[in-house]
Amino acid sequence: MTPDQSQQALEKRTAAAAALRWVRDGMLLSLGTGSTSAAFITLLGEAVQAGQLRVQGTATSLASENLARQVGIPLVEPRRGLRFDLAVDGADELDAQLRLIKGGGGALLREKLLETASEYFLVIADSTKLVPQLGRFPLPLEVVPFALPWVLDAVEKLGGAPEVRTVKADPNQLYRSDQNNLLVDCYFNAIPDPERLMHQLQNIPGIVEQGLFIGLAKAALIANGADVQVIRPGMAPAPASDFASLP
Ligand SMILES: O=C(CO)[C@H](O)[C@H](O)COP(=O)(O)O
């Protein structure tokens, strides 16, 4: 790990620990995916094991579900009417208006489902994720395999450079989501109008979900060194220590 990567890992854990302070006994949680969420799930599991918290959760990926099981968080299956008190999840990029790019970990569909079904979606992230403009990170799409050629054409027409995701350890093997769909990472370099792009992508048949999350997150906890700032749309950033409960 380079010094930058270990600093980033520390910040992820700091943001996760800050989110844990706002989990209350009895809450039903949506558990995110990725390394920042894994830090949160681990800390939450420790609190559950220590008898400090009684919570239940549903995970946004099979990987997070396995981790939650390992650390002793009771899990709830999807069912009609299921709503979550709090969703905690990472992001690949976010701006000051809490527009997010998600799906770097391939879990965007379940993430969007559960975060839409949550009363409060709290993003946790290290300082590298907060950007002035979205788009440096390639925008992930979950795509039905049969639709792939047409989706690639449509993304190019929108000005993006699409790349079908492969498995890191074996670049000859296509990456599959938990739903067995393909992932396409779209390089736009800059996304000046995320709302417009989101609507354009939503109109392309075969895209099951796209990685722009707009209007979903209520707050973000951004760790910068040992400090944690709360970011909320239209409000000045404030230290997380100013808040005794969810901001
Ligand atoms: O969207 C995601 C998974 O689909 C993750 O939240 C995102 O990739 C951030 O991951 P990390 O916490 O490892 O930086």
From TrEMBL:
Pathway linked to the protein: Carbohydrate degradation; pentose phosphate pathway; D-ribose 5-phosphate from D-ribulose 5-phosphate (non-oxidative stage): step 1/1
Reactions accelerated catalytically: aldehydo-D-ribose 5-phosphate = D-ribulose 5-phosphate
Top EC class for this record: isomerase
Domain of life of the native organism: Bacteria
InterPro entries: NagB/RpiA_transferase-like, Ribose5P_isomerase_typA_subgr, Ribose5P_isomerase_type_A
PANTHER family associated with the record: RIBOSE-5-PHOSPHATE ISOMERASE
Quaternary structure (record): Homodimer.
HAMAP family, sorted: Rib_5P_isom_A
Protein name in the entry: Ribose-5-phosphate isomerase A
Annotated source species: Hymenobacter crusticola
